[in-house]
Amino acid sequence: MFNDWQNLIDNIKKGSERAMARMISRVENREPGWLDAMKIIHKMSGKAKIVGVTGAPGAGKSTLTNTITRELVNRKYTIGVIAVDPSSPFTGGALLGDRLRMTEVCNMEGVFVRSMATRGALGGLNVAARDIVKIMDAAGKDIIIIETVGVGQAEIDIVKTADNIMVVCVPGMGDGIQAIKAGIMEIASIFVINKADREGVNRTVAEIAMMLNICSGPSDKNIPILKTIATTGEGVAELTDALLHDLEAKDKKKDWVEERTKEEILNLLEKEVARYLWGKWEKEGKIDNTVKQIIARERDPYSVVEEMLESLIAEHKCEQF
Amino acid sequence: MFNDWQNLIDNIKKGSERAMARMISRVENREPGWLDAMKIIHKMSGKAKIVGVTGAPGAGKSTLTNTITRELVNRKYTIGVIAVDPSSPFTGGALLGDRLRMTEVCNMEGVFVRSMATRGALGGLNVAARDIVKIMDAAGKDIIIIETVGVGQAEIDIVKTADNIMVVCVPGMGDGIQAIKAGIMEIASIFVINKADREGVNRTVAEIAMMLNICSGPSDKNIPILKTIATTGEGVAELTDALLHDLEAKDKKKDWVEERTKEEILNLLEKEVARYLWGKWEKEGKIDNTVKQIIARERDPYSVVEEMLESLIAEHKCEQF
Questions:
Q1: What whole-number distance in Å separates Cα of residue A111 and Cα of residue A102?
Q2: Interfacial B residues in 17-46 facing A (CB < 8 Å)
Q3: Which of A34, A155, B157, B262 pairs as cysteine with A148 (C-beta 3.0–4.6 A)?
Q4: Cα–Cα distance between B179 and B268 in angstroms, integer?
């Protein structure tokens, strides 16, 4: 089994996109051996810079991601793109044709695109996104762009794992308030006012500048507010300059990398330990009866969780030590 | 310590709102003894019906919650309201004055209101919401309304724990698409078109009806689409009728209650086991060094999580059994 994984990893090292795609799928599905494989991938990773692109729906994030990717490719960077898609089981999330727009970058040399449904990720969305980033990183991608469709908490938790967070707005006040309400303001590295040919663009710039001023108090960071028209490419070169500049500066942010690593351990801990204990109970056929007892108020979920932990401990008793 | 909790529980049984408020805070803070206290609360709960109110920002959810609450109070129900507020640490989430509007119901007889920030909940948002619901339920509230501000995944995960899910829209197509994209369509029990005095209301009703038709295929459920003007109270009596009717019908949905209970165990398992293991490592002063090693690629998060689990098992070795 492990030879198979090692084979994939060797091919990833050589930059094989096919191997990357297969490895991501297998890790997403938690196929046996994934944990050991990811240990190796972790050691191979750590060089890539991660960019999060978020903002209100309709702000043009997909088009902007496309255009920035093209610009970065022209500047000789290799790129990985992760499209986080809050798909519904019914609509498949393809309603607005985001995937369609994405195909343009798919075909660029040195660009690898992967989309990720926000539902059904076995290890949780956070963990799954980090896995994919690490695999792309290990494969030698210089910059990895995570593009989210919405501005929900799950999406924010994902983009927070990035080195640079781009918040995309459009002229008009609504988006500004939305961004603040969802807690994006304080995590933004760069504000982009896209569709800058629309009316009210300068007012939006002023509003965001004012909010940044209010929110961050005596400013220790200087957050750029840039105007783009993603469809024509206007302003994208300047945005790319600002992005690369910020990514360089992020090299110094030691505290922040430590914080991110802590979150990574904690997320992994939550998902994997729970998955293990739950799976054990399921295998033993205990779940259904327990659930019935809880509903009947004969038992409660709190003591069930305690018991699950205890069963884990009991299982590894004396013989093991 | 436990006497203190027992005292709170006794007062909650008598319907003391002060005891409820204190218990919620202490459970949210995971004060020692909370787990045993919640075991008792679980046994006391199970009678209340839970209503989730969600929808796009600006659809008038707060006002609608206010109006429905008043109507339910008039019909002699006691109500608990949980306002889920995705507050930013900077703005405190009060930007749009939702809390201000909420004060009206606060002062109604038999109504207990609690707001909940989507950030910093120790046990995770899901778990925290369930705890609060259970405490209100144990205190004898007939109906508990969970009102969310946004439509992110975290909010959806919360409203999914409700018996009835009301999705609030306003005339105009944008909201419809948003609702679908966020995966709300398939969890809705009732659609409310609020601000029904606005132009385009009938088109919106038709659009939602059409989407429901597409999404649910050969329809096994008949989801009402109702029009309201929350500010004047128009349509709210009819909405309340539909709500109470649906809550009665939900008594039969056994499978669904079982699914919800499974999720409850799993969420609790994730958060509590991780919190315990993490806390242990923190106390032993192991975190900082481990994080540095992971960043330096001398270690990896995957083997750290394995080691945490093993340390738990080792700790409880032979002596215990």
A1: 11
A2: 35-36, 38-39, 42-43, 45-46
A3: A155
A4: 28
Using the Cβ of B252 and the Cβ atoms of chain A, whether some distance falls under 8 Å is answered with no
Which distant-in-sequence residues (6+ apart) come within 8 Å of B198 by Cβ?
B170, B171, B172
Is there a contact between B183 and A88 if contact means CB atoms under 8 Å apart? yes
Beta bridge partners of A10: none
Distance from CA of A305 to the nearest CA of B (A): 6
Largest CA distance in chain A: 74
- Which DSSP helix (H) or strand (E) runs through A225? strand A225-227
Whether B301 and A264 lie within 8 Å, measured CB to CB: yes
Q: Could you report the predicted ipTM of this complex, rounded to two decimals?
A: 0.74
Q: What is the distance between the terminal CA atoms of chain B, rounded to a whole angstrom? A: 28
Q: Contact B115/B82 with Cβ under 8 angstroms?
A: yes
- Candidates A151, A163, A214, A270, partner chain B, best to mutate (most B CBs within 10 A): A270
Contact B119, A182 (CB under 8 A): no
Are B128 and B16 spatial neighbours (Cβ–Cβ below 8 Å)? no
Backbone angles phi, psi at A17, to 5 degrees: -70, -30
Q: Helix (H) and strand (E) counts for chain A?
A: 13, 7
The pLDDT profile of chain A, 321 residues, written as one tens digit per residue, is 557 899 999 999 998 999 999 999 899 888 888 889 999 999 999 899 999 998 876 788 888 999 999 999 999 999 999 987 654 333 333 334 444 555 566 677 889 988 876 554 445 666 788 899 999 999 999 999 998 866 566 677 777 789 999 988 888 755 555 555 556 677 789 999 999 999 889 888 888 887 777 655 544 567 899 999 999 999 999 999 999 999 988 655 677 788 888 888 888 888 888 888 888 888 889 888 999 899 888 899 888 888 887 776 665 544 433
pTM of the model: 0.70
Q: For chain B, give me the number of helices (H) and strands (E)?
A: 13, 7
Of B140, B315, B121, nearest in space to A313 by CA: B315
Q: Per DSSP, what are the bridge partners of residue B62?
A: none
Nearest-by-CA chain B residue for A312: B313
Residues 137-156 of B with CB under 8 A from A: 149-156
Q: To the nearest 10°, the Cα dihedral for B178, B184, B189, B192?
A: -20
CB contact under 8 A, B86 and A295: no
